[in-house]
Amino acid sequence: MVGVCVGIHLLQQGRSVVLMDRNEAGEETSYGNAGLLQQEAVRPYEFPRDLSVILPAALNLRLDVRYHLTALPKLMLPLWSYFRNCSPRRYESIAQEYGHIINMTLACHQELISAAGAEQLIRKVGWITLYRTAKGRNKGHRELDAYARQGVNFKVLNGDELADMEPAIKGHHAGGVHWQDPWIAGHPGKLVKAYTRLFKQLGGEFVQGDATSLERSNRQSWQLRDHQGNTFEANETVIALGPWSAEITNRFGYRPPMFFKRGYHMHYQYPAGQPRLTRAVQDSEKGYMMTPMDAGLRICTGAELGLRDTPSTPVQINRAEAIARALIPLGDRLDAEPWRGARPCIPDMKPIIGPLPGVPGLWCAFGHGHQGFTMGPATGKLLAAMMTGQATEIEMSGFQANRFVHT
Ligand SMILES: Cc1cc2nc3c(=O)[nH]c(=O)nc-3n(C[C@H](O)[C@H](O)[C@H](O)COP(=O)(O)OP(=O)(O)OC[C@H]3O[C@@H](n4cnc5c(N)ncnc54)[C@H](O)[C@@H]3O)c2cc1C
Predict the structure, then answer these.
(1) How far is the CA of 231 from the centre of ligand 1 (A)?
(2) What domains does the chain contain, in order, with CATH numbers?
(3) Ranges for the FAD dependent oxidoreductase domain (predicted)?
(4) Per residue in 323-378, pLDDT tens?
(5) 27 CA distance to ligand 1 centroid (A)?
(6) Where does residue 57 fall: left (phi above 0), alpha (psi -120 to 50 degrees), or beta otherwise?
């Protein structure tokens, strides 16, 4: 999502752009997510500070977050920094910056959706946080004031209103919150592919190749090779490889403190003759998300803290499935194996957007963590403005790569 959107915005600024991916576009993290365009996500995903959350998480007893013990040595530093950035004072200031970029997102998506003729891929219905118990509801409601202060629209639902809005949910629950502004992509990968077609219509060239072939060909220019061995030269290169971005930046001396919150999904058949969810629903006290997608209901898991490439341990998806089966009508599994991806997370919760320090002509657009599917077009617009020397819509100093360079 991020790379394609950067490409489109650079073309719109009159640049000539080649987009290289080792596969087709929209087949990795931007395919496997929960499909939410999250205009409500002005407050980034926080490291919990409440012992009633931290202790069961430390014992690996929670569904929303688990960790691999063997990954802890590599995770300790970024997690410590993440924890410190979630002190109330720091978190509030980060949430204000994060809110500025999130507030741009739907308008930026709408521009691309209209230009790409992709309206049919989007449902503008919002999504719901479900509270099973009064305790969970009261805890959730305590956070709503902060969202209201940041201009987020929502409607608090009692149990009856929740049941009326989503008849597929079995039983009576304490209530919910309907986040009214977000949109759902019924097939996230198809939205990225629609944007990729737009990129090509605007004159962009899409090629398949390995970005690790990037080299400086002379003082001014950069060179990449596609899978056929063709070479492409450019004065500037943007690194937008999501969870793989640091593989390139490390080679040029820039080591962003990226860590991974792995996540899983599985699709399920809609049982014939039974009600379906019409919106995405987060079963908040359990800790997983259900999104009604075109291909079936997609259950997505929370965070698995681990290394990006170690084998799948789909404990969370199996447990979420068992819980969801008691909550809504859920048919057979549709995928042979759970899909796994990695949210590319930065300890201060903000993406890295801007020039790569000390290496002229290299730019960064990665680290979008929980909301890269939402933020892609806004990132594209902001980075294209920076690269072409124009004023950006929001202040970018807090998103620059040099915040992790210590002299
Ligand atoms: C379970 C889960 C649920 C999520 N739900 C949401 C959600 O509802 N809303 C939301 O906004 N965000 C969500 N996210 C986060 C979001 O999916 C990511 O932040 C976003 O997709 C990152 O986009 P990206 O373009 O940076 O990375 P990617 O989509 O991963 O794209 C990176 C691209 O780089 C290519 N690449 C990698 N290495 C190379 C190489 N060496 N050479 C060439 N190409 C290469 C890959 O093929 C890929 O196409 C979720 C994430 C997960 C895991």
Answers:
(1) 25
(2) 1-46+86-123+185-258+346-407 (3.50.50.60)
(3) 1-386
(4) 999 999 999 999 999 999 999 999 999 999 999 999 999 999 999 999 999 999 99
(5) 8
(6) alpha
Residue ranges of alpha helices (H) inside 117-249 are 134-142, 144-149, 159-165, 188-201, 245-249
pLDDT at 220 over 90: no
Query: What distance in angstroms lies between residue 368's CA and the mean position of ligand 1's atoms?
Result: 8
| Atom from ligand 1 closest to the CA of residue 27 | 49
Task: Give the tens place of pLDDT for each residue, 150-175.
Answer: 999 999 999 999 999 999 999 999 99
Residue 217: predicted pLDDT: 87
Verify whether ligand 1 is closer than 6 Å to residue 3 (CB atom): yes
**Residue ID of nearest Cα to ligand 1 atom 15:** 370
**Whether residue 352 has its Cβ less than 6 Å from ligand 1:** no
Distance of CA 159 from the midpoint of ligand 1 (Å) = 35
Q: Is pLDDT at 219 greater than 80 in this prediction?
A: no
Please spell the DSSP secondary structure of 24-41, one letter per residue.
-TT-SHHHHS--EE-TT-
